[in-house]
Amino acid sequence: MGEQLDLLSGQPLKSSSGPTQESGSVPAQSTLLAPNSLLVPNSLLIIDTETSGLDPSEHQCLEVGSILFSVPDRAVLAQQSFLLPVSSNAAEPINRIPASVTQLPQPWREALGYLTSLIAAADVLVAHNAEFDRQWFGIDPLPVVQQPWLCTMEDIRWPAERQLRSRPSVRDLALAYDIPVWAAHRALTDCTYLAEVFRRCDDLETLLLRGLEPRQLMRAQVSYDNRHLAKDAGFRWNDPVKGAWTRRLSEREASELAFSVVGVEPPSEQLAA
């Protein structure tokens, strides 16, 4: 497991006595230790899915890409991409994967077993728009996931000098870190962009720690004349709360705003299993 840091100071915390992880064993999952104290993830599994539509009750996942990434070494440890057979793909104009191609012979069942091994080796699963990708796991044939998820679109606050929108696209994120964009909407390609971004982040540990802080949906308390304050801070109008500017924030992020906010749902423990 990674080094334990204090979220506010960024300094290592004193380690407590107790059993240590044996060499060669699967990394233990990061857990919330105390208010403002988290474990730095040692390994990330960057995941992206391509699907035949937006609704898991009606559509299917047809491609999975994943990269196992070492945080302290800034290195790719393993990567995988495979197709899952589907009979139709309404999203073909977007992902350009014909259903007929997904049905060509390839060892997708064996690939699912390897994916399960990669998931077991990771402390945290990472996706761009994780809310979308995580909903497909636990639906046959994809495995159930116990690890926490981190969203590079919603949870990580990218450095201001990168001049990114509050919810950047994978393309914009890659370009902000001087990574060439050669394709889009294939699972492993999008994973590669995120891995390359992480490889270039000197402050990756801090970004991950702050991204993993528990968050809750909060409503901005701003007047009509001051609505620009909420918009500039990344709040969205009418989504998901009608008639309100809202955004998911940690307590630390809420305290740094220039206006007041009020929670509209209980805080979520992003590190909870």
Annotation keywords:
273 residues; alpha+beta; Nucleotidyltransferase, domain 5; five-stranded mixed sheet; four-stranded antiparallel sheet; 12 strands
Termini Cα gap: 16 Å
Biggest sheet: strands side by side, in what order?
6-5-4-7-8
What does the overall shape look like?
A: globular
In CATH, the topology of the largest domain is named Nucleotidyltransferase, domain 5
Classify the beta-strand content into a percent band: 15-25%
Largest sheet: 5 strands, mixed
Specify the CATH class of the largest domain: Alpha Beta
Summarize the SSE layout with pairings.
Blueprint: E1 4-6, E2 32-34, E3 37-39, E4 43-51, E5 61-70, E6 75-83, H1 92-95, H2 99-102, H3 108-120, E7 124-127, H4 130-134, E8 149-151, H5 170-176, H6 187-199, H7 204-211, E9 216-221, H8 227-232, E10 236-237, E11 245-249, H9 251-255, E12 260-263
